[in-house]
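quick one before i forget lol
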Amino acid sequence: MKLLITGGAGFIGSNLILHLHEAYPDYHILNADKLTYASDLTYLKPLEKSTRYSFSKTDIVDRDAVRQLVRSFKPDGIIHLAAESHVDNSITGPEPFILTNVLGTFNLLEECRAFWNESGKDFGSFRFHHVSTDEVYGTLGDTGLFSETTPYAPNSPYSASKASSDFIVRSYHHTYGMNVVTTNCSNNYGPHQHDEKLIPVVIRTALNKKPIPVYGKGENIRDWLFVRDHCKAIDMVFHEGRSGETYNVGGRNEWKNIDLVRAICDELNELAANGPNGDYKNLITFVTDRPGHDLRYAIDATKLENELGWQNTQDFRRDLRETVNWYKVKYGF
């Protein structure tokens, strides 16, 4: 199997490549990444001597570069993670989100479709796996879960760009017969996440004895999924998912933002016991809420569990502690 991973130097992508490289010793993996501010190739240093891993600095917005990439590597499958992903950045500057998430996905689909059609093999033997987000569904009230049949209702430029790419991928299955699958995941946490995301922000600001910013009153609720469990789900859907189908991946692990921040502070109180007045929670500071901030996300992963047998193995406190420890080392504490 020659497997192309886009966005493989990012948070989920780097964890996924490490997982797949170990799980499939007969696979050659090509990591195509633009190397934006959110990318870091040092995460993949364990593979630097591997003959089964290679890297290409490629911007998927550049159609000619995508064409050259596909035709030189000749992939049997693609797992597409390359995306602009930070909601706050999409609010202040939406254009890169439209270009990368919408146009970039289109470029990949078109060049794969052209190459695979010319390959002489059964078109359906190639697979395009699109990795997306639960944010395309909008917001939930106090009850209920997002399922694969929940209507789309994106509320930020980021989620709108991902919703657009989801629909484009879907259309290539129904129009051209392309063998595609899509996964929509809840909030990931774990090693390698970029510093701008909530959990790294809390850890970094706390360790530096700076105010920990919490939007609004911290009442927004997210379903948290450990990144390695997500990688196992991607692996399973890529290899076993039904063509044209969408699978939701969630942690069944809902936390109010304020409660999550307090849990991180509790871990820091044990791992780096020098918070102000003995408690990092004294640094929590409420700030003006961001525009269009969805109240609650929660994923129903029943389809993935029942059809493919995926199980979420996370122990949240254990995995949160691993995450806090990883960032503690990264930030030099």
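fyi Residues 95-118 form the longest helix (24 residues).
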